[in-house]
């Protein structure tokens, strides 16, 4: 959530920060602000509620100039989204400001303590407490005749905070310096050079905010403090002890974070899925042998052979991917799989099992609940693996192995290419586990790997054929108040994901249900105004798949008997289903375990076109954020 961009260098800082914040808009926000240091004796602030364009309008009327500063887009947690509550926040002197992502859980106790010391507060936020706490440390040192550096005051203040934070701090008394600290939400430091070859340094809450200026980054770990000056970057822990972090070279092309002619990032990312799937499989499969290679891991083949079960934890769309993964892993590797919402995992007090393996699925690698689940798994004695899209993210650093999805930056809040890449990564993991445990023959492995290699072309085929069909369906159904999505077996989580996509971006109430549960409640909802999307694809070479298909046809007849409108997703050439439903979205044939990747493509397009038709903000749906970095 929220966006942070900071800069120290020789360039004009205001356009640079505004550009960076605009590239972080996908994270979700409801106000914005900027603080700039220049040649004058104080810091200048500009803030505005609403979108960045409102802040830009303020800056046109009240311009700022300088070569160092910080900016922020805020997603309200404490206090309404007003100009007063927008970041940055000042201390009492007005000479020090803070931007903050996260939640300070003990802010009320700190506020009372600081008020007793004479501090006056002007906002409803927990962030303002941090500014005053830093000021108090500097003031206490001065009362003893000492001078305390900004970074020392930040370290001392942070040691008193309970909760999650990524902060950036600047002071008029220490020009050309930014102090950053992290505990929970992500923070990255960029290392660059200006046109004269002089060093320039960046702070951001996510990679796209500074990717146009540098690809060389430090990812701060929890407890890290970074000091950015014209002379470079120094990293320490909260007690001032030096720490080292590897410089990560980001290989994303900055153009990948642009719309490239598409109307919305979401549409661009839907159409990037063939490339993302190819990149996720690249170098990991052998068509000749059928083998899967997952690179360096601290989990050995013996660990995999000895595994008693797999515990998967994830949130939102990644949780839907996890349910699909359960089918894949149990079917291929014959290992029991438990899937938990990451936010609930530690509250059920999972039974310790050192032979179980934890698997965390997350696009950002920084989701607070998923990190908490990972740490609970580790505390229970498990080794953990991660499926993640961001190289160097916290969850990857704490795992014993990471399967990166290589989907590239995903800007739209509603996940698309990250989801299909996660499905592919789970398929690769299931194959690797099965091969290690000896539950698949060589011929079976080769057949499945060949099916996987054909997947990108099949997704391209769907994108060519389904986009215009979904646009036409949007004209018919964009006025619906409710939708129902149905699926059986491995297709049930795709029904959940289809419903989530629609409700996220169009604000239409939608539910995903197992088709076999229709008689246990959902039938009561069906009337002539209810569109029902049914996943009716099948792998004709698989007996169980065909049986599932036949039962799904019976569910369709239950809906039509009650005058519901049916949109079916079916396999190309299935003419029988056209006699039973109102509309058909076709996908190419594929292996049963890979059909979910094809099933979801038309559902993404349908949700997108309905949302556009309703005039919704597709890339930044209300009340949602891309990366949920607080609990």
Automatic annotation (TrEMBL):
It comes from the Bacteria. Pfam families: GATase_6, SIS. One of its GO terms (molecular function) is glutamine-fructose-6-phosphate transaminase (isomerizing) activity. It is found in: Cytoplasm. CDD domains: GFAT, SIS_GlmS_GlmD_1, SIS_GlmS_GlmD_2. One of its GO terms (biological process) is amino sugar biosynthetic process. It catalyses: D-fructose 6-phosphate + L-glutamine = D-glucosamine 6-phosphate + L-glutamate. Residues 2-231 form the Glutamine amidotransferase type-2 domain. Catalyzes the first step in hexosamine metabolism, converting fructose-6P into glucosamine-6P using glutamine as a nitrogen source. Homodimer. This is Glutamine--fructose-6-phosphate aminotransferase [isomerizing]. It comes from Silvibacterium dinghuense.
């Amino acid at each position: 959530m929220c966006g942070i961009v900071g800069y120290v260098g020789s360039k004009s800082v205001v356009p640079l920060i505004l550009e960076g914040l605009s590239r972080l808009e996908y994270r979700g926000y409801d106000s914005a602000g900027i603080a700039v240091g220049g040649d004058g004796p104080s810091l200048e602030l500009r803030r505005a509620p609403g979108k960045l364009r409102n802040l830009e309008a303020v800056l046109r009327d009240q311009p700022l100039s300088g070569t160092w500063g910080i900016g922020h887009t805020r997603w309200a947690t404490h206090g309404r989204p007003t100009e007063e509550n927008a970041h940055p926040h000042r201390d009492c002197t007005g000479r020090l400001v803070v931007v903050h992502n996260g939640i300070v859980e003990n802010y009320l106790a700190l506020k009372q303590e600081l008020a007793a010391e004479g501090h006056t507060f002007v906002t409803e936020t927990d962030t303002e407490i941090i500014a005053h706490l830093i000021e108090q440390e500097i003031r206490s040192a001065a009362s003893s005749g000492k001078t305390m550096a900004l970074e020392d005051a930040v370290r001392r203040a942070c040691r008193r905070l309970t909760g999650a934070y990524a902060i950036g701090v600047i002071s008029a008394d220490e020009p050309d310096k930014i102090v950053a600290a992290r505990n929970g939400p992500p923070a990255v430091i960029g290392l660059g050079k200006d046109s004269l070859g002089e060093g320039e340094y960046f702070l951001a809450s996510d990679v796209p905010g500074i990717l146009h200026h540098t690809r060389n980054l430090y990812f701060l770990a929890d407890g890290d403090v970074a000091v950015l000056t014209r002379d470079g970057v120094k990293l320490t822990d909260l007690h001032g002890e030096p720490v080292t972090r590897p410089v990560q070279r980001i290989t994303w092309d900055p153009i990948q974070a642009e719309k490239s002619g598409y109307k919305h990032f979401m549409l661009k990312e839907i159409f990037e899925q063939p490339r993302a799937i190819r990149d996720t499989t690249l170098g990991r499969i052998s068509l000749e042998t059928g083998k899967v290679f997952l690179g360096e891991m601290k989990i050995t083949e013996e660990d995999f052979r000895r595994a008693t079960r797999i515990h998967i934890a994830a949130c939102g769309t990644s949780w839907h991917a996890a349910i699909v993964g359960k089918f894949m892993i149990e079917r291929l590797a014959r290992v029991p799989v438990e899937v938990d919402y990451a936010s609930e995992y530690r509250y059920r007090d999972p039974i310790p099992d050192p032979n179980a393996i934890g698997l965390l699925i997350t696009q950002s690698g920084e989701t607070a609940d998923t990190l908490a689940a990972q740490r609970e798994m580790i505390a229970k004695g498990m080794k953990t693996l991660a499926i993640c899209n961001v190289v160097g993210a916290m969850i990857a650093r704490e795992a014993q192995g990471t399967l990166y999805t290589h989907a590239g930056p995903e800007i739209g809040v509603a996940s698309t290419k990250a989801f299909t890449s996660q499905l592919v990564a789970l398929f690769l993991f299931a194959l690797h586990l099965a091969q290690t445990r000896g539950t698949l023959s060589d011929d079976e492995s080769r057949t499945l790997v060949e099916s996987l290699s054909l997947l990108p072309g099949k997704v391209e085929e769907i994108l060519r054929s389904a986009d215009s069909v979904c646009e036409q369906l949007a004209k018919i159904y964009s006025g619906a108040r409710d939708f129902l999505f149905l699926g059986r077996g491995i297709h049930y989580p795709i029904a959940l994901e289809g419903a989530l996509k629609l409700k996220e971006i169009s604000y239409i109430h939608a539910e995903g249900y197992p088709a076999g549960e229709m008689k246990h409640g959902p039938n009561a909802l069906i009337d002539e105004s209810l569109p029902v999307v049914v996943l009716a694809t099948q792998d004709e070479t698989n007996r169980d798949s065909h049986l599932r298909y036949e039962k799904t046809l019976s569910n369709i007849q239950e809906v039509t008997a009650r005058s519901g409108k049916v949109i079916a997703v079916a396999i190309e050439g299935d003419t029988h289903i056209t006699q039973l439903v109102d509309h058909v979205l076709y996908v190419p044939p594929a292996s049963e375990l890979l059909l979910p990747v094809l099933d979801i493509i038309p559902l993404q397009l349908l949700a997108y076109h309905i949302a556009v038709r309703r005039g919704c903000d597709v890339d930044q749906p209300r009340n949602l954020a891309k990366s949920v970095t607080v609990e």
